[in-house]
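Please discuss these two lines.
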Amino acid sequence: MRFANPRYENEEVTYEDVFLFQDYFEGNSRLDDVSIIPTSFFGTSIPIVSANMNAVTGKRLAETLARYGGLGVLPQDMDISVMKRIVASIKSAPVKFDTPITVTLKNNVRDALGILYKRSHLCVIGVDEMYRPIGIFKEKDLLEIDQFTCLGELRKPPLVTAPEDISWEDAYNLMEHEGISSLPIINNKWVLVGILTKKNVIRWGIYTPNIGSDGKLSAAVALGINNFQEKARAMINMGVEIFVLDTAHGYQKKMIEAIKSFRKEFGNKITLIAGNVITEKATHDLIKAWANGVKVGIGPGAMCTTRMKTGVGRPQFSAVYHCSQEAKKLGGFVWADGGIRAPRDVCLALAAGASHVMVGSLFAGTYESTGDIHYDGDGAMYKENYGMASGKAVNLRTNILSPFEQAKRALFQEGISTSRIYLRKGWEGVGDVIDECMTGLRSSMTYVGARNLNEFHEKAIIGVQTSAGFHEGTPHGKVIQ
């Protein structure tokens, strides 16, 4: 990557300040002639990881993201028993199909509506005591019906199912022929094993799942830098192969000691990312301590108030660019953590040299994120999001301490405790967010003339623009009636 004007090399700029220049592309197809497989390979086939935030990543999001080739990072605040249950759920989830939401026909409409929006296929499947599907209910079947009506009393259309060895094309054609959008998948004993939608059939013909060495969906786990050994050992025993040592100020003595302690106890086969940092020196020292990569970003996240409170931070494009240069010298990599508001930001972070981009708020407003659906006064759906250094997160992290100790730690809050993240039309599911970002990335790579992410970084020519230049590139036309 180079700046079109060399004098900007050492300026501090963020995503809105910069743009990519067009160049010649020799390929024919954005889909067939462009590879978006990350340069630092640990199973991912797309360069997207989820933020290890309580309001973002849980079992549903991590599982779904892994199916599309990304990586979910479970937050460090989880109790070890909860984390074991979540990792077990991810590891037992089907690789080829989405996990169905199930009820019995003895459940009522209220029960079904309470879980309907947990996954983006937006339907629940009625099963018998042998877990065999006997009915499917979508939103339109449940609204405007007394919520205490037993599901067994509702009229159900004939149930269409398919065997688990069905091809993607045959599954799509079957749904087209039957006029349905969701297809329950069964094994040879008629037991429900998954569900397909038309969108997922197309996606899973494009994306490659992120599978661990155990042949199951992969997930990463975030750890604090204190007393992490028991949790790490338990997670490794369950098949977790990627860990993130995570603290807001990642360049400190305790982080270096934590990296060395982790390596001493668990060896070098586990992938370890440490952060957060924003300087070349910090990147150098963490990788030299034996982290495989670093997480880059202080203050760019939507829920973060660190820069406003402390004055510490760095514009994110420059932070990623300079840290990635240092990481590559040492055979490491960086994750760009924070500041992703649109697909263009993903493209720019990767052009700057990141191997992966960490997404938080865009995922927080999806069906699969951890939060519950709420409704505003106009009936619009939203979820609550909060920063990991906010008062809410600090309270959750310190609830085992005495009230006095909790009160002391409450003084050091740096983040928004509650924010509404609305479910945006066309972005409601994890798959929707991935589609928007990855189709944007593929197009960006063709504009730059790159066939893979290495070339994308090497060929990227960056320009610096005014705020008016950025605004010019946003949709800003007015429709005249």
